[in-house]
């Protein structure tokens, strides 16, 4: 039976390790997944390639996409737009690949509202002290920024119960396997198999009539 891919949104606190988790998931099971590529109006940074890290487009092109409803979700940060192109996502889903969007809570809930069958996963470290330790361990941010990220985490924690599954990122290897298992099981949910169930029902009815 051919299957359509599932749209998956992964969110988590800054420092939860969701980016590393996504890379490892793709590394192990790349044939099953596609990471969504966002469109943006910002200039490419050194080494970034159009169609790989982002789709780099003009502000005018982006606003046309908004008007034509060609974006699943979008937001504006520091004078630049960022958004998820609908056509790329639908192309991957139709090919049977599960598409992962790594976005924050507000965006995740917008996607869920527009596409109720979306699977929402929230990634968290096992404790707040571990979260702070990971943020400090990056060695790229001041303590002031780290404290602001911790305050942001307190706000984001209020939305965790709106997600379908909580994934505790303690051991990376175990966490990757757990996430993969959740997504595999999700394909078996009855509401995702309406066409197959109808086919079975029709087949049973025909066999009862001796057809």
UniProtKB/TrEMBL annotation:
This is Guanylate kinase. The gene is gmk. One of its GO terms (cellular component) is cytosol. Pfam families: Guanylate_kin. It comes from Faecalicatena contorta. InterPro entries: GK/Ca_channel_bsu (IPR008145), Guanylate_kin-like_dom (IPR008144), Guanylate_kinase (IPR017665), Guanylate_kinase_CS (IPR020590), P-loop_NTPase (IPR027417). Residues 5-184 form the Guanylate kinase-like domain. ATP binds at residues 12-19. Belongs to the guanylate kinase family. SUPFAM superfamilies: P-loop containing nucleoside triphosphate hydrolases (SSF52540). Essential for recycling GMP and indirectly, cGMP. PROSITE patterns: GUANYLATE_KINASE_1 (PS00856), GUANYLATE_KINASE_2 (PS50052). GO terms for molecular function: ATP binding; GMP kinase activity. Its EC number is 2.7.4.8. Keywords: ATP-binding, Cytoplasm, Kinase, Nucleotide-binding, Transferase. It is found in: Cytoplasm. It catalyses: GMP + ATP = GDP + ADP.
């Amino acid at each position: 039976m051919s299957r359509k891919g599932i749209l998956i949104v992964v969110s988590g606190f800054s420092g939860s390790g969701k980016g590393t988790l996504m890379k490892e998931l793709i590394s192990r099971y790349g044939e099953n997944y596609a990471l969504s590529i966002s469109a943006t109006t910002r200039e490419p940074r050194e080494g970034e390639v159009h169609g790989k890290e982002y789709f780099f487009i003009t502000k005018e092109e982006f606003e046309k996409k908004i008007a034509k409803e060609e974006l699943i979700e979008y937001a504006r940060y520091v004078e630049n737009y960022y958004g998820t192109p609908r056509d790329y996502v639908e192309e991957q889903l139709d090919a049977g690949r599960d598409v992962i969007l790594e976005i924050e809570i507000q965006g995740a809930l917008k996607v869920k509202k527009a596409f109720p069958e979306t699977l929402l996963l929230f990634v968290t470290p096992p404790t707040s002290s571990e979260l702070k330790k990971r943020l400090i361990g990056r060695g790229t941010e001041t303590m002031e920024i780290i404290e602001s990220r911790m305050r942001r985490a307190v706000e984001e924690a209020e939305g965790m119960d709106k997600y379908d599954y909580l994934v505790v990122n303690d051991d990376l290897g175990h966490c990757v396997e757990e996430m993969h298992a959740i997504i595999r099981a999700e394909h078996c949910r009855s509401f995702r198999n309406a066409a197959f169930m109808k086919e079975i029902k029709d087949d049973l009815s025909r066999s009862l009539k001796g057809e």
